[in-house]
Write a structure and sequence with these properties.
Blueprint lengths: L1 H5 L9 H16 L4 E20 L2 E4 L1 E2 L10 E8 L6 E6 L6 H12 L4 E6 L24 E4 L4 H9 L3 E22 L9 E6 L7 H20 L6 E6 L7 H8 L4 H4 L2 E5 L11 E5 L2 H12 L6 E3 L10 H7 L3 E6 L17 H18 L8
Parallel strand pairs: 4-5, 5-6, 6-7, 9-10, 9-11, 11-14, 12-13
Antiparallel strand pairs: 1-2, 1-8, 3-7, 4-8, 8-10, 12-14
C-alpha cells in the first residue's frame, strides 16, 4: 500500500495526482466493505507559470509561498540582505516547520512589509537539491510581499552576494484560479444512533510525494476501517481523509463549515497526523485534550510492543489538523512525529519509511476501534 502511494507522484491539492490518489483511496476503502463518499468543495488553486531566482548567470528553480501576494510585474530585482535589514530583497534560511523561530521571524517580516520580496532558502540539514516547502497557513487571505523558496545548494553564493551588498533577480508569474478538490468520508454505523459519533481523520495531500509523512496516517486509517466494518459496536465512527492539508487545512475547514459545532458535538476526534512512519527521527508525539483520553490510550499502547513516543502537554496548542479541533474546544487524541525529510521531495519509499514502527502503530490503532465504539468510551 505504501509503495503504491509513493508511485502516484506529488500529492498536491487539486492536482491530477491528488484526484487520482483520492480515487485510489476510495477503491481501497470500498474493498474493505465500507461505503465511502467523495465530498467536493471549491477553493482557489495556484497556477505557477514561471518562478526562479537569478544570481548572475545562475538560474535557480523556485516555488512561491502559496499564501503570499503575487507581483503585478513578473520581475523583481534589488540588493539582498538578511531579513530585518534595509535590503530590497530579504533572505532567510528556514526549515518548513511553522513553529520554528525562523518561520516566525519570516511571518513578522511579511506582516511588516520590510522588503519588496523575500527569498527563503531551505534549511541546511536538508539535501542540497530539492525545496522543503512551507505550508500556506493563510491561504484564504494571502498577505505580504512576494516570497519564493529555493534549495540550499547555492547558499554559499547567496551569502557571498549579501556580504558584498550585491543584487539578485526574482521571476514570478503566478495566479489563483477557481478550483475543486474532494475529501473522502466513510461512516460505519453503530447499533445506537443516539450516541455521538467518533471522528477519525487523516490528511491525504501534501506538497510532494511525501511518502513517510502521509503513510502512517493512511495505513492506520485503513486498518481502523477494516476493523470497524467487522466489529459491530454501539457508537458510530466517521472516517475523514482530507485534501487541502498544506493549504491551511482547506479540506477539513470545508468539512467543519458544513457542520457547525461538530468539533464539540462529536464524542471525540482521532487525529492520525504526519510523519509517525518516518525513518528518522524515531519517536511519535502524542497529545490529548484531557486526562481521560490520555489514560485510556496509553493503557492500550502499553498492552502492545510499545513503539517510542512522548506526550505533549495538554495545555499546549495542538499541531496539524488537530489544531482546528483544539481551537474549537473539542476532545481529541493526536499522533504525529518529526521527520528529517519533512516537506522535501526526498521523502520517498523505501528509504524514508520505518515499516516496523508503522506496523506497531497500525496494530495499536486497529485495536483502538472496539474501545471507540463502546457506549462508555472515554467518558469524562
Amino acid at each position: 500500500m505504501v509503495r503504491a502511494f509513493d508511485q502516484q507522484g506529488d500529492h498536491r491539492t487539486g492536482s491530477r495526482v491528488d484526484q487520482d490518489s483520492g480515487d485510489w483511496l476510495y477503491e481501497q476503502i470500498s474493498a474493505l466493505g465500507a461505503r465511502p463518499e467523495k465530498i467536493q468543495f471549491s477553493l482557489p488553486l495556484v497556477q505557477i507559470d514561471e518562478c526562479w531566482v537569478s544570481l548572475g548567470d545562475i538560474k535557480i528553480d523556485a516555488v512561491p509561498l502559496f499564501d503570499c501576494n503575487f507581483p503585478r510585474r513578473s520581475s523583481i530585482s534589488g540588493k539582498i540582505g538578511e531579513i530585518g535589514t534595509d535590503a530590497d530583497i530579504g533572505v532567510i534560511m528556514a526549515p518548513p516547520q511553522a513553529e520554528s523561530a525562523q518561520v516566525k521571524l519570516l511571518y513578522q517580516s511579511r506582516r511588516s512589509h520590510q522588503h519588496s520580496a523575500i527569498v527563503v532558502v531551505t534549511d541546511s540539514h536538508f539535501p542540497g537539491t530539492g525545496i522543503a516547502l512551507l505550508n500556506a497557513d493563510d491561504y484564504a487571505q494571502p498577505f505580504g510581499p512576494p516570497v519564493v523558496q529555493i534549495a540550499n545548494r547555492y547558499w554559499a553564493e547567496i551569502k557571498r552576494i549579501m556580504k558584498a551588498k550585491g543584487s539578485l533577480s526574482i521571476r514570478l508569474k503566478a495566479k489563483r484560479n477557481s478550483g475543486q478538490a474532494f475529501n473522502i468520508q466513510t461512516r460505519v454505523n453503530g447499533s445506537n444512533p443516539a450516541l455521538d459519533p467518533v471522528v477519525i481523520m487523516t490528511p491525504r495531500s501534501s506538497w510532494w510525494c511525501s511518502t513517510s509523512e502521509r503513510a502512517g496516517g493512511l495505513v492506520c486509517f485503513l486498518e481502523m476501517i477494516r476493523k470497524a466494518v467487522t466489529f459491530k459496536g454501539e457508537r458510530s465512527l466517521v472516517f475523514l481523509a482530507n485534501t487541502g492539508h498544506e493549504l491551511d487545512h482547506a479540506g477539513l475547514a470545508s468539512f467543519l463549515s458544513e457542520r457547525p459545532g461538530i468539533e464539540k458535538s462529536a464524542h471525540l476526534w482521532v487525529h492520525l497526523g504526519a510523519n509517525f512512519a518516518a525513518a528518522s527521527p524515531i519517536g511519535a508525539r502524542l497529545q490529548f485534550s484531557d486526562a481521560v483520553i490520555q489514560e485510556g490510550f496509553i493503557k492500550l499502547v502499553k498492552a502492545f510492543n510499545s513503539p517510542v513516543y512522548k506526550i505533549k502537554p495538554e495545555a499546549e496548542r495542538a499541531v496539524g489538523e488537530a489544531r482546528n479541533i483544539h481551537d474549537a474546544g473539542g476532545r481529541y487524541l493526536s499522533i504525529l512525529a518529526g521527520n528529517d525529510l519533512f516537506h522535501h521531495p526526498s521523502d520517498r519509499w523505501p528509504a524514508a519509511v520505518n515499516t516496523e514502527n508503522l506496523e506497531q502503530w497500525a496494530c495499536i490503532f486497529e485495536n483502538l476501534v472496539p474501545l471507540l465504539t463502546r457506549r462508555d468510551a472515554f467518558i469524562i
